[in-house]
Amino acid sequence: MDKNIYFKEWIHNWNWGMRTALFLILLFSIVQFSLFSLTQNYVISYFGAQPEDITFSIQVTYISLLFSLPLQVRFLNYFNTQKYLITVLLVGIFLNLLLMKTNDIQMFILLRFFQGIIISLIAGGMLTLIFSRLHNEKKQAVGYSVFYGTLLGSSVAAGAPTAWIIDNMDWRMIYYIVILFQILSIIIVLLIFRPERTHKKYPLYQIDWKAYIIMGAGMLAVAYCMVYGPKHYWFEDPTIVYTSFAAIFLIALFVLRQLKSKRPIIHFSIFRSGNFIIGLILLALFYGLKDTINLVYNYVSVMAQWSNYQYIQLAFFNILGMAITMYIASQLVMKKRFPLHFFLVTGFALMLGFNYWMYCIMSSDLAFTDLIIPIFLQGAASGMLFVPIATFILASVPVTTGISGSLVAGNVRFFTTLNSFAGYYTLQLFYNQHYKEQFLAYLTPYDTVYNERNAALVQSYIGKGFNLTEATALARASIMQSVKTQSQLLTNQSIFLLVSVLLLGIILITLIAFLFKKRMPKSKNKAVLATETHTITTYKTTL
Question: I need a surface site. Which of 125, 267, 358, 369 has the fewest CB within 10 A?
């Protein structure tokens, strides 16, 4: 891509100025995606909704973002760049004004779907343009580091001012901040982009709109099943049954349509690559196992009831760890000094350290300082794993498949995140019930410890002015709350230990695979190396 065809003369040779401008537009756009991830309790209370509704709204936004990514490339090459970006940003401002006025959760979810499309068109366009400002050998590592880092870091960047706004004024003032960001983006667009078109116009009539609609509908059906399924006991609810059948039908229809299409959105030939399949498995393991951090965030917000500022400060240390190791990993990937096994063992070992650390320290009175190091380790693990795995996946797909590799990787992230949400939710239900039954077995009139504790609580409440009946009821409620708390703590410990064992197994398998590869006959090793080198070289030429 010619880097001079989009930008004004005064800035197109100023690389750092251009990169900064594009990154600011990217950040201002992605902030909207994770706007409520750290403050969703206030959104839940405002709409009178369930936590699952907000989780579903976040997934809906990601779905629309994901399936719009291939379209943004076509739009960027069809329309006048400056007018196109300004129009999209103005539509984004209009959507934020509507979100500010709505008080219905279903309308909120619908508007978030359209907001995801806007985020995709702007963020995807900025990524494409950032790639055009990088040397070929840097595009993979740096490009995806910027996107993933911005996606995760935006939650903290948005969380700090959001927490202050929520504590001092109406939370809907957040939308005014987002609109201000979008106005700043419009100003930047006017300053750096050419007002006239200087690039070839690619037609839009070859876009398979029906395939996009089918793919989006199928992903929405899957998200609904995975988010609401655990709470409704899966197939005991007719709505989940019907939605599951719809999801299977739509996904199957999409696959069949792609196999017969002359210009498919996803080229399924990429699945012939063994390295591509291995990369997807590694990506799924990464996204699935890293989500145990949500147990910590749930602990600090629900059980410990920390303030928003403490919550965001804790998330900051996670992002800090991710940023440091992501930078290190991207530099090492570009210099090609270490094999993939090195990053896998290091990253999963850091994640193992986080999970086992949390298993050891999990209690009802954790302080902020107790969580800084393990939370930092989890972020460091994410940064160390993502860039090498993403680079490995994209280097394993043929040139002719376009962005199929990125789109499939995004779908793996989507399905894995949903599976981990449903899986951890189901595990918590199972372990909670298990431990509650164990505790309740001791809450009998024949248990000395229970009787002593109950009597002490009754006397304590009587001393506070309650009569005997009220004091007895309050004592029993207090004991049941303690049972609930201890059951959740033991549940968290069990999940952290289970994931630690899985991570240890992954590390051992990776080491065995590495040793096996080193002992391969030299002729086979050279053939494999030649194939991998050819694939990577071919991929780079496309960028």
Answer: 369
